[in-house]
Please model this.
Amino acid sequence: MKTLTKEIWMDIPQRRAVVSIHNEIERLVKESGVKDGFALVNAMHITASVFINDNESGLHHDFEVWLEKLAPEKPYSQYQHNNGEDNADAHLKRTIMGREVTVAITNGKLHLGPWEHIFYYEFDGKRRKRLLVKIIGE
Model:
């Protein structure tokens, strides 16, 4: 069995952003030499997410608008968590968008649908955060 474990560090200068990590995950699958297995990609911070969806800027905008309606950033005082902090909305948004993705690897490539693409979604940026990538297989 082959395995590869890597951390990807993210430095997002704004509070929220959707960032494609798809090419980097493909590169790591190739580096691993795994032909048949799985890739796990997860955010190691509770105010960020990894998700799979269409690589289309209009959809990314729609996510932002939808999430902001569900868990608005302001006023900060609306949240019990924001006692000395201002990121309760980021925790809620992360819960909705999820922590990680697991993708099958077949013939040495990510086994995804035609429009599926892997993203990192930052909800409380302006500080360094990391992702874990774990690839396991034969």
